[in-house]
Amino acid sequence: MQRWKGRVALVTGASVGIGNATARALVQHGMKVVGCARDVDKIRETAAELQQTGAAGQLYPVQCDLTVEAEIRAMFDDIQSQHGGVDVCINNAGLAIKAPLLSGSFEDFRTMTDVNILAPTLCTQLAVQQMRKRGVDDGHIITLNSMSGHRLVGSNAFYSMTKFAITAMTEGLRRELREMKSHIRATCISPGLVETEFAIRLHKDDVQKAHAAYASIECLQAKDLADMILYVLGAPPHVEFNDIWVRPTEQVF
Ligand SMILES: NC(=O)c1ccc[n+]([C@@H]2O[C@H](COP(=O)([O-])OP(=O)(O)OC[C@H]3O[C@@H](n4cnc5c(N)ncnc54)[C@H](OP(=O)(O)O)[C@@H]3O)[C@@H](O)[C@H]2O)c1
Asked: What SUPFAM superfamilies is this protein classified in (predicted)?
């Protein structure tokens, strides 16, 4: 991780869960991390905590609703003027809403599309533009996919559809970068069950269901994913992890 010290990472969805753990890990390794989410107060708390513990880097909290294109563009403009530009983009923010194909609301389909597909696509485009403008050829785009981006489990087909899109996005991005002779790397990480707010938000009408799911096996923790992201970033520049499937050992499907 030595070569990333002092360089700039954007982590979307940094308020809680995998994004929060990742922002912490990158700051502890000396990176300047722009962490965004709607609940910016939680990121401010994390930033203060990191500062108090003498972390090597710094966390810069930004409020951004990733369903709003103008807010994403404004965030990238601010990153450029304040920090020069993004070197590493972690497209982490994502959500699942209960919305069966035959009865789900169009609004819920749209929210999942906006946050899980369009936001990472736009963040990727703007991040790569900032890298290329500054001649950064070792940048990295890492996107949180899911095992649901490879196979359908349960009945949440629309969420799965958005994650299948991330599988296609990562490979498509890789090909476009290779066509440009760029060495910027593209990775997606496809976890199974991770104990975060994810299932609690999904089952907000029946939170016990979420707790039962997390209690049913020994789940992955957000820190496990942050450690994986450090591993992916720390690989030598000629090594590109493209997709990492990672499930709790006890998870069956
Ligand atoms: N947990 C799992 O079992 C699991 C499994 C496979 C894949 N994943 C993927 O891993 C990623 C992280 O999930 P997690 O488990 O850490 O979930 P989480 O604990 O629910 O956190 C989700 C994050 O996304 C942010 N977010 C949601 N909507 C947003 C919006 N409109 N604008 C900005 N930020 C938004 C949230 O911030 P605010 O609410 O503050 O805006 C929050 O920081 C997601 O892409 C998810 O699909 C999770």
From this structure: NAD(P)-binding Rossmann-fold domains
